[in-house]
Write a structure and sequence with these properties.
By secondary structure, the protein is of the alpha+beta class. The protein has 2 helices and 6 strands, in the order αββββββα. The protein has 2 domains: 27 residues; 46 residues, no CATH class.
Length: 84
């Protein structure tokens, strides 16, 4: 009887550990250098210096570099500033 309870307890702990690992992989994305990037990471807009979560950011590649913006207007302003 005690063995059965011990096995059930161990399987429950294993289930919760595996669930946390799987959730961790779902919240990550591969960045431009092949490293994993957390989607909840706060990134700074280079135009207005507003911080936004990476998952909500407008991501643009300008001159071969990836930048994160709070809006399409900030992305356009940055591209205009780089061009001119």
């Amino acid at each position: 009887m005690y063995r059965l309870l011990l096995v059930i307890a161990l399987l429950t702990v294993l289930y919760f550990l595996l669930r946390q690992v799987i959730r961790g992989f779902r919240n990550r994305d591969v960045g431009d250098r092949g490293t994993y990037v957390d989607q909840d990471q706060m990134v700074e807009d280079p135009v207005c210096h507003t911080f936004v979560p990476r998952r909500n950011a407008v991501i643009e590649t300008v001159s071969g570099q990836t930048h994160c913006f709070c809006s399409k207007q900030c992305a356009a302003a940055f591209q205009n500033r780089q061009a001119g």
